[in-house]
Backbone:
């Protein structure tokens, strides 16, 4: 099956937060550095998890129409302002708060990501398909050396994944049939929604996304077109 | 001025047809190869010029509302079908006609383009800002090894350049002020419209765009923020 798949799939689009980049490790490092610089002690891993934890509810406020279309940068800032107040981290300037908010533009790739993408790029069109806004995704690529052929964002559809419009964007803009596009993600829910729009699915679990103590997703591996431990193995399996 | 410019400009977005790629030489080569394969004699340079000549009027039909939003791929095909009929080139199959139409996805870069872009990419975000559709631009980048950080197309605005909406797209999606974005183009009209939206302008004349016999644009070089003979000189002037 995987050999055939490598033949019919023309583009791979990647979820980014957690799949390509280690948001948690990167955000914790930035928070700890800020804490040291400002002499603030706090539970920074807990702060990072709460920041990310506010992300789905914030997107839901957009999806429900409570908020108009709002970029992830601005949703991150809404959540951050609440967390800073709630946790008593009060003495940051606007410039410091903005810099901290833009830590999401400076997330480091997982160790296998750049090499695996470089290999996949030789055979496939490779791009993002992320809820991150375009500017954030471009900055992440510059920061981490991610060799995308194309940066696609839910921002272009004004619909966050898992809304169907966000997935339709990729075949539509790439001029491909949905079955010629594979979403690669560490999140079964994202992949299931992509499959619902006719895309192929590549599951790359990232068991450390929520840190060493987190419980991995319970997943039936047979639900996906391909499963790989990392991007190098994905290249192997897709014949790249 | 150029030194300051290099400091305040964060992203360079490039017109593509004629500025980055030699559409005319590439299209003539594809037409000649088809002619040889099919035993058809014709004025292929004239055919190429007429094909490209149909491009502005076709976009005008979209701009005026006579046609709904229509991608360049489909406008190219409309013009091609008329030309094939008009010039009596009749015995092409649908597959051959489609392959010919997609010659616009296989245009070769000007000789300086890849090296110059590679150098500019180290200092700036580099991207397209083209009337070509996304799929076409992604294919061109794969074909020619163009190292874009981001592919932006008029398709994302549903407005063709020189409509203002097409230029506003770049700072908007990159999260930058218009003055932090420079349009690089071989066409004064494109640059003037970009300047009207507050973008910086880089003029790179391509005197061979319409072939060795064509008359170059009459241009006042003082109208642009920077003028360079090719992308290597542009990198030099912008301190990259």
Residues:
């Amino acid at each position: 099956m995987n050999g055939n798949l490598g033949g019919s799939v023309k583009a791979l689009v990647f979820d980014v937060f957690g799949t390509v980049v280690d948001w948690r490790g990167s955000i914790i490092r930035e928070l700890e550095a800020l804490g040291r610089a400002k002499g603030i002690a706090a539970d920074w891993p807990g702060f990072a998890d709460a920041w990310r934890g506010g992300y789905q509810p914030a997107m839901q406020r957009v999806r429900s129409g409570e908020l108009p279309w709002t970029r992830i940068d601005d949703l991150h800032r809404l959540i951050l302002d609440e967390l800073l107040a709630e946790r008593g981290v009060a003495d940051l300037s606007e410039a410091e708060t903005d810099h901290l908010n833009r830590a999401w533009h400076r997330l480091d790739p997982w160790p296998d990501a750049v090499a695996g993408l470089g290999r996949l790029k030789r055979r496939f069109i490779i791009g993002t398909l992320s809820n991150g806004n375009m500017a954030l995704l471009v900055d992440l690529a510059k920061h981490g050396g991610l060799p995308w052929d194309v940066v696609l964002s839910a921002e272009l559809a004004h619909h966050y994944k898992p809304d169907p419009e966000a997935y339709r964007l990729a075949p539509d803009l790439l001029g491909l049939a949905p079955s010629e596009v594979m979403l690669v993600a560490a999140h079964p829910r994202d992949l299931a929604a992509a499959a619902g729009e006719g895309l192929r699915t590549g599951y790359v679990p990232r068991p450390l996304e929520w840190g060493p103590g987190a419980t991995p997703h319970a997943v039936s591996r047979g639900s996906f077109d391909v499963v790989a431990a990392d991007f190098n193995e994905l290249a192997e399996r897709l014949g790249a």
